[in-house]
Amino acid sequence: MASYSMVNASIDDSEAISSLLQAAKRGGLAPSQRIKLGYVQGDMSLGLVRRRFERGFGALIAVDDSTGEIVGVNFYSDAPSDTQVKHPLTGVASSLQGFQEDGRIDEAGYPIRFDNSMMYGPMAVTDHASGKDLARKLIEGMVPIAQQRADARIISFVDNANSASIAVHRRVGLSSLTEFEFEGRPYTLFSRNV
Ligand SMILES: CC(C)(COP(=O)(O)OP(=O)(O)OC[C@H]1O[C@@H](n2cnc3c(N)ncnc32)[C@H](O)[C@@H]1OP(=O)(O)O)[C@@H](O)C(=O)NCCC(=O)NCCS
Q1: Which InterPro entries match (predicted)?
Q2: For the chain, which has fewer Cβ within 10 Å, the N-terminal or C-terminal residue?
Q3: Structural domains in the chain, sorted by start
């Protein structure tokens, strides 16, 4: 039976990560299939993946122990604070800004702020390794990383139309902090204390 290790990626893994994420866009599939299997959105080019590492993002990867193939990835970074950017990230930043201004406290009693929330995503697992709990491990692997950074929570945003991704987040114990809209599409901002 195949076994997998969770490893911290480096910029040298960019090409394999970009290929994995480009496949996870599921460009050729009918909308109903994309929704069922899950998808990622946006630019997943090699250049953008490299830039993420250069800007200080980290990534956890799932590696097949026998072949060395990277079969899953989950990026992580500081929470976004730019409320002007033309990207769903603007919704995350605005939501956090609103919570911070209102002094909102989360379920565990911590204030919800930019500087104590670690964001993760995009995340994907290649189809031939799916159904083996790798997405769960790639999300749960965020917890010790956030703890080391002294963050109070991990957060991630999901397009509400992406029912596979919504289901994964709920199954792995994240709950909705809020919802926001970007260009007419609703998104959920998920959170879990660490
Ligand atoms: C969606 C995706 C991440 C699932 O990865 P995976 O490794 O197969 O998921 P896991 O085996 O870790 O499953 C974790 C939980 O989510 C559930 N789940 C996984 N895929 C699901 C799907 N497509 N629809 C509904 N639930 C799903 C599993 O049943 C499991 O729950 P349970 O064990 O409590 O029953 C993967 O298919 C993928 O990368 N899709 C394309 C990109 C994408 O959707 N990215 C967003 C990531 S959330």
Answers
A1: Acyl_CoA_acyltransferase
A2: N
A3: 4-193 (3.40.630.30)
